[in-house]
Q: What sequence folds into this?
């Protein structure tokens, strides 16, 4: 038997900056509960995001918009319990931060204080830049999110790649620069042409984590259910499946069902036995009734 792996040291923002400086890619994955957090921990990722993609992958909503603060907090707390080393990023859901700095602060503090997040993520440039600045000034590390921002996908014309013209690319780059200027510790850039990321990264000091944004990003993030093939839904073009867990899970449950139906499961080794003398005594007690 191999010795248990030594506990990893906790990832810090400084460690991530050092990796970026050394040109070492950062790895982020989403997780939504205790087992997925344990898997991310065991796989040695740098960052775990409890994304509001949970709305679709875990809660079955048809977009990320309906998920509530309380739903996100419950999932985030479960992930916290399963994580030790990676930095934990909480995703503030739609409607929980946009209206004012005070609202953003109140929500972000709940993610830090109640769910144990290290950072919070908020979407878009525009007014979100002010929200990011307010959170950073209050001592909360912030991850910005530019490019395709699913919370406002309707306003963007749907779930389409962003920044496909020079002007649109410049708008994405300007959002990113404004978020860095506001004090964001990191950015996620989603669904933009690789050229946009390649142009952006040299302009920024903070790490840029890409998803559907090409190889020039300082790191990559994928949704847990997408990369493991757990989700029965269409995957975006940028998703690469590294496993087919859904088929494996269906196969497992089907085999269980047929073994129950055929009385193959449970076998003797899956049950508890009574000492023979106690079984005999029980028989006697029943007979004497
Ligand atoms: O909610 C999420 O999972 C995300 C990632 C796709 C970056 O925002």
A:
């Amino acid at each position: 038997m191999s010795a248990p792996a030594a506990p990893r040291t906790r990832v810090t923002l400084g460690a991530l900056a050092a990796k970026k400086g050394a040109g070492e890619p950062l790895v982020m994955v989403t997780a939504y509960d205790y087992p997925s957090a344990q898997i991310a921990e065991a796989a040695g990722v740098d960052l775990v995001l409890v994304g509001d993609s949970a709305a679709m992958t875990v809660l079955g909503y048809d977009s990320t918009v309906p998920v509530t603060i309380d739903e996100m907090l419950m999932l985030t707390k479960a992930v916290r319990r399963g994580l030790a080393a990676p930095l934990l990023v909480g995703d503030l859901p739609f409607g929980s931060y946009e209206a004012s700095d005070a609202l953003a602060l109140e929500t972000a503090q709940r993610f830090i204080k109640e769910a144990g997040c290290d950072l919070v993520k908020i979407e878009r440039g525009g007014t979100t830049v002010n929200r990011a600045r307010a959170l950073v000034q209050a001592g909360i590390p912030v991850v910005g999110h530019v490019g395709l921002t699913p919370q406002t996908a309707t306003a963007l014309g749907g779930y389409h790649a962003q920044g496909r013209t020079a002007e649109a690319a410049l708008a994405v780059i300007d959002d990113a620069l404004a978020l860095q200027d506001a004090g964001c510790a990191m950015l996620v850039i989603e669904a933009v042409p690789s050229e946009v990321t390649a142009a952006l990264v040299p302009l920024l000091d903070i790490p840029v984590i890409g998803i559907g944004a090409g190889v020039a990003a300082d790191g990559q993030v994928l949704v847990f259910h997408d990369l493991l093939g757990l989700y029965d839904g269409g995957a975006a073009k940028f998703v690469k499946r590294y496993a087919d867990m859904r088929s494996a899970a269906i196969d497992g449950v089907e085999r269980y069902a047929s073994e129950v139906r055929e009385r193959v499961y449970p076998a003797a080794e899956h049950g508890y036995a009574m000492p023979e003398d106690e079984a005999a005594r029980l028989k006697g007690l029943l007979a004497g009734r």
In short: The longest helix spans residues 245-261. The beta strands are 26-30, 47-50, 87-91, 119-123, 142-147, 186-190, 208-211, 219-222. The chain has a mean pLDDT of 96.
